[in-house]
Amino acid sequence: MKKKTRVNIYDVAEEAGFSISTVSRALNDDARISAKTKVKVKAAARRLGFQKNAIATSLSTNQSKVIGVLVSELNRGFLSSLVHTLEDTAFAMGYSVIICQTNNSHEREKTYMDTLIASRVAGIIATLSLETDSYEHFEKAKEQGIKVVLVDRVSPKIKSTTKIVIDDYQTAFEGTQHIIGQGYDKIAYVSGPTKQLLYADRLRGFEQALKVAGLPLNPEWIEYSDDLSYEEGTRIAKKILSRKDKPNAIFTANNLAAISTIAYARQIGIRVPEDLGVIGFSEEPFSAFMQPSVTSIRQPSTEMGKLAVQKLVEEINADPGESYIHQKIILDTELIPRESTNRLCKR
Questions:
Q1: Alpha helices in 119-161, H assignment, sequence order
Q2: Which residue numbers delimit the HTH lacI-type domain (predicted)?
């Protein structure tokens, strides 16, 4: 049996009765082609099951309708919500999306960047991996005319890009104030790698809130992790809670570590929130359903995702003869008080 070959533009031209150049222009909605001809060509393409090659189209027209997304992890609540919104918004605006998960690897991030550049994407939306400490691959993309928008994990070293972030310093400051307001006065902090700006800012906000309240900052109560996974949260909780001088509250730089901290504390007989208050940055879908439910700081993932696509498409379509003004957009967060810090009501 003869293997069926893939339908190409020559087949569509023969089926529709037009030249190849006319068919190509019709499929790309060229203004020089009449509406009647476009209808005939597209009908022939549908009958044959013809599909345009997005990369080939971008090469021939110098216009791509594909956006690349570099995301550190897809199994975290905030990031999965962000990517869901990115894809949904891009599709509504006529763009397809290539999603690349870096697993927080700098090398993987660079490899995927090369793939996206080779694919001639119109733009890239990225949240940096935890390992990223050099940025030549982003400059390489921009040199190729690819627009870049950074979300959440950003770096001031990447110039001429729109950045969509939260105020990590102020948010951590207010989160710490909340814990203090609930009567906790010996507070530990679990940080991500501070070479990433957002984790450095969160730690500064925590430290400043203690200073303003006149509370001690015990260096032994500050721990760092390059991962902040559930397992890492458990490991660090064991370390902090095994000390002779224990804290009575723990603020973690992500919500997954907060969840594992609560689980471990309960396992060893420490009551939450009576003996230990716990608050986590960001929000996992099940935070509200834990026992006790987890006090969290919600990041605006939906708003971030929509804005990232809108700003990227705006820059893609900007007049090349005019200078595009890049922005740093700071969005609001929301503190969600729940049982894990509700100490006053337990007394």
A1: 136-143
A2: 7-61
Q: How far apart are CA 120 and CA 59, in angstroms?
A: 8
320 Cβ contact partners less than 8 Å away, ≥ 6 residues apart? none
DSSP E strands in the chain: the ranges are 66-71, 96-101, 123-126, 147-151, 162-166, 187-191, 222-224, 249-252, 277-281, 295-298, 328-331, 334-336
User: Which of 74, 80, 77, 71 lies closest to 296 in space, CA to CA?
Assistant: 77
> Mean pLDDT for each 10-residue chunk of the chain (347 residues)?
64 88 81 88 86 57 81 91 96 94 96 94 95 94 94 94 98 98 97 94 98 95 91 95 95 94 96 97 84 95 97 92 92 96 72
The CATH superfamily label for domain 66-166+301-331 reads Response regulator (3.40.50.2300)
Give the strand pairing for 295-298 and 277-281: parallel
Which of these, 317, 305, 266, 258, lies nearest to 122 by C-alpha position?
317
Side-chain half-sphere of 269: how many Cα atoms within 13 Å? 1
Question: Can you tell me which residue has the tokens 């993987």?
Answer: 108
Residue 195 has φ and ψ, to the nearest 5°, of -70, -20
As given in the structure block, the two tokens for residue 60 are: 């021939």
| Superfamily for domain range 9-52 | lambda repressor-like DNA-binding domains (1.10.260.40)
pTM to 2 decimal places: 0.82
Instruction: Identify residue 136 by its one-letter amino acid code.
Output: E
Show Cβ contacts of residue 17 under 8 Å, excluding neighbours closer than 6 positions.
40
